[in-house]
Fold this protein.
Amino acid sequence: MPLSLAPIAPPLSLHYLSREGGPHPAALGAVQFGGTPQPDCALQIATPLLGQATEALELWHTDQPVRSGTLGLLHYAMSDDLLFGAICIPDTDSDVGQYPGGGYDPLRPSLLQQASEQVYLAVFAALESLGYLHLLRVWNYFSDINTDTWGMERYLQFNIGRQDAFRKMARPFLVDAPAACALGTHGGGLNVYFLAAKVPPLALENPRQVSAYFYPDQYGPRTPSFSRAALATLPGQRWLFISGTASIIGHQTQHAGDVRAQTEETLRNIAVLLTQANRAEDSQDWTLAAVQYKVYVRHVADFGVVRAVLDAQLPSAAVRIYVQADVCRDDLLVEIEATGCLPVPSLPEKTP
Ligand code: 3EB
C-alpha cells in the first residue's frame, strides 16, 4: 500500500495583527497589547502600543481542533500538541505600604508575592491535569514593577512568589526553566500567559550572560526562574522562543542612560542566542530574519531611537511591534523578545 502523505495541519503560527481588519480568526490564544479591553481576547495587557495603531493583537493560531475551558481563574485552550493558558489576578495593583521597620517581612508576603505564587501553582496544576507537562514560554506583566512596597521592589517580590511555586511543585527553576519575560504595566493587575507542550523543550543560555537563575543575591532573595531561550519541536515545526533580552553582560546592566547603546547591546545578545540555537540544531537557519520581535520601550520619548537602531540592523521584512512597558531593572531602558518558527528539515540523503 502506498504511504499516504496527508498534509499535517500546522500546529502553531504567530501573528501580530492590528484590529483594523475586523474580527480576528479563531485562535488557540489571543492577547491584546494596548487599547481598551475586548471580549475576544484571553488577556488585555496595559502596555500602550507605539507607532500608528493604538493596539496590537498577538495571535497564536493553530489549524488543529481546539478545546477550551477554565480551571479556577485560568482560561485555557488546547490543541493536539499545545496548551495555551492565561490568568489575571486583578487586585494586585494598589498594594502599596511600608512596614514600620522598613524592611521586607518574609513572614508577611505582599499581595503580589502571594498572587505570583498562586498563579504559578495554578499553571502547574493545569499542566498536570490537562497533560501538557512542559512549559515552553511564559509572559508576565504587572503594574509598578520597579516600585518599592513593603520594603522590596515589586519585581523581586514577584520573583519570590514565582520561584516558591516552582519549588513547591518540584519544577525545574534553574537549568530547564522556561523562556520568559517580566514587564511592568500601568494597572491591570497581574497577567500571565503561557504555552506548554507534551514534549520538553531544549533550554538555551547566553554565554555572555550569567544565567538569570544564578544571579547573585544583590538582585533579590530569589533568582528569576527563566532560561534565556527555549527550542521546541512540534510536528513539522521548530520553534525558538527568545526570552526578554536586555543590555546585560555577566549580571550587570551595560550603558545605563544610553538607549541607543542598550538597544545595540540587546541585539548582540539576541544574535548570540540565535547562534546558540544554530549550534544546538547543527543548522544555520536561525537568523535575525527568522524571528518576530516584540520590543518593550520604557520611555515613549526613546521610541524613535530604538526603532532607528532596529531599522538599521534588522532585515526590513522581520516583523516587530513596539509597546511602552517598564523593564524589570530601573536602569534598563529597552528589552526585546523574539519568537520564530522554521520547518523541520527533511532528512538528509544517506551518504554511502
Ligand atoms: C534580565 O535579563 C532582564 O523575570 O522572567 C528578562 C527575561 C528579564 C525574563 C523574568 C526578566 C525575566 O534579567 C529581565
Summary: DSSP finds four helices and 21 strands in the chain. The mean pLDDT is 94. The two ends are 28 Å apart (CA to CA).
